[in-house]
Amino acid sequence: MKKIICPNCSTVFEVEDDSLNLDIACPNCKMNFPIFEGKKALERTYKSLTKKGFNYYTHLEFNKSNECYKEVLMINPDDFDILTRYILNLCYLNTYRKTNYDKIIPAFEEREIILDSKNTYLFLAFLKDLIQNIHVYFEKINKFVIVDNSFINEIYIKPYLDTLLTLKDVFSYLDNIFSLLKENEKNVYLEDNPTFLERYNKYKVLVNESLTKTYNLISKGDFIFDLENKEIKYLNSNIKEGKEIILEDERIITPSKEFKKEMRNLYIICSSLILIGIILVIVGFSINNDIVKYIAFIPLILLIIYMIYFYKKISK
Q1: Cβ–Cβ contacts within 10 Å for residue 97, how many?
Q2: Choice among 183-197, 199-213, 256-270 with the minimum mean pLDDT
Q3: Are 91 and 130 in contact (CB under 8 A)?
Q4: DSSP state letter for 96
Q5: Angle at 38 between CA 34 and CA 43, to 5 degrees
Q6: Which residues have CB under 8 Å from 27's CB, separation 6+?
Q7: The pairing of beta strand 150-151 with beta strand 215-217
Q8: Could you give the CA distance from residue 139 to residue 253 in angstroms, rounded to a whole number?
Q9: Which uninterrupted H or E stretch holds 176?
Q10: Residue 214 above 70 pLDDT?
């Protein structure tokens, strides 16, 4: 069985016949078309959705990005690259009252994923981004929700503790996957990213330590989390007076004005450098001047340098 897409109504369906020239009727709009046209239409749709998904991601529009990735995964559920992007987008949509780390294990478990050489690299790259996401989560929690060692509002306590329990399970699950990775590719990746394991283990330890810490809540005092019974126990100590606060924007990752400015600069600089390069190439060939032709490579080099700088900056 192979999947094709109707060029008329974009319905995705499966066909059995391997004859590419054979006509097939769309089950939705009933239009007849050759199977090879449906195959080409599927490839175009696949590439277009993947590109759109990435473009939305670079603008921090994670919901729109995942709308595209959902359609890609409907076409090919085993595209591990798209799956990891989809999961990361869910994590980028975390809020202080609802995180999506609980969707990581089911997303992997419901698919038969072969951890070959390519997927080993993709998994480790995904893991690196996930750890960065977890880093941001703790950073923001300890800046906006747990202020001066006290929770700003009781409504954020249970979601936080639930997230810690989920992350504990996630790390346990990820530990098991490590043994399934291709050894050579894993070692190469770890050599190229020497701080990766240290960072991974740091946050695994932090999750476990955070579950056993003593916390404080304004007006109610210190409390601990009883892991065995999964309940909060107040200690009636260190009671601090204050007013509970609810955050106006509970998103953990929010597009900033600075980010939008950087994106505008990216488009302006990239467009300008490409235009200059094209003009130099045209002039170089029109006057048959090799020096001008070689100079045309300078904007390209500057473009590559700026793109590296930009993506390093936005990934911090």
Answers
A1: 17
A2: 256-270
A3: yes
A4: S
A5: 145
A6: 11, 13
A7: parallel
A8: 11
A9: helix 157-178
A10: yes
